[in-house]
Amino acid sequence: MPELVTSAFRALASARGARAVHPRGRWFTGTMTTTFDPALPLPEGRTEVVGRLSKGAGTAAGVPDVLGLAFRLPGPWDVLLSTSLARVLPRPARTWSSARYGSITPFRWRGGLAWLAAVPDPGQTASASLDDLPGELGFTLEVGGPWRPVGRLVVRPLPVDDEQPPLDPVRNRPPGLELAPALLARLRERAYRGSRRGRPAEQDP
C-alpha cells in the first residue's frame, strides 16, 4: 500500500507538472500573534510567517474547491490547513472566507491530541478565485478540542505563485510533535514523497 501511494502521487505530479494536490495557489507574507497554550508548541507573541493559499484540486477561476492555507513557523514547522467540516472532513468552499480551515488530522504533543484551525473573518472575498484574493486576509487561530482562540493570523497575498521552497508538514515539524494517527501519517509521508519525485524541480537526492 505505501508504495502504491508513492507511485500514484508521483504519476499525478508528473502529469500535472506541478504538485499532485494544491497545484494552483499564491504565496503570501504575514504575521501571527499567539498566546501560550499547552496543547501545541506555537510560538508566543508576534511571528513573521510566509505561506501559500491554494486550491486542492486546482479547479479553475471561482469554481469551489477544498482550499488550503499553509505557512511556515520558526523551527521550521510547516503547518497545512484545509477547509473542513466537523474537524476531520475536507470541505469545498465557495469563497476564501466562507469556511474554517483545519488540520483535518490531530497533532500529538506531550501525550495529548490537539487540532489547529484558522477561522477567517467573514465577508472578505466573493469567490474561490485566486484572482479574487484581497490585499489582506485575517483569521482567528483556534486550538481544539474543545475549541478555544489562541491568536490571530494576517496574510498578505503576493502577486504571483512564484517558486518557493515547498512546505512539507512531514519533514518540517518541532521535535516531539507527531502527526496522528501514525498509519495515516506514514501514508501522508509517502504521498509527499511521490509528489516531490514527480516534479522535475523537486527530485529527491
Set out the fold topology.
Elements (H helix, E strand, L loop, with lengths): L1 H15 L7 E11 L10 E11 L11 E7 L3 E9 L3 E2 L10 E2 L4 E3 L2 E9 L16 E8 L3 E10 L20 E2 L2 H17 L7
Antiparallel strand pairs: 1-2, 1-10, 2-3, 3-4, 4-5, 4-6, 6-8, 7-8, 7-11, 8-9, 9-10
Helix pairs in contact: 1-2
Features of the shown structure:
205 residues; alpha+beta; 2 helices; 11 strands; globular
Q: Work out the helix count.
A: 2
Rg over CA atoms, rounded to whole Å, is: 16 Å
- Indicate the structural class: alpha+beta
Mean residue pLDDT: 82
Describe the 3D structure.
With 205 residues, the chain is α+β, with helices and mostly antiparallel strands. The longest helix has 17 residues, at 182-198. The two termini are 23 Å apart. It has helices at 2-16, 182-198; strands at residues 24-34, 45-55, 67-73, 77-85, 89-90, 101-102, 107-109, 112-120, 137-144, 148-157, 178-179.
Brief overview:
The protein is 16% helix and 36% strand.
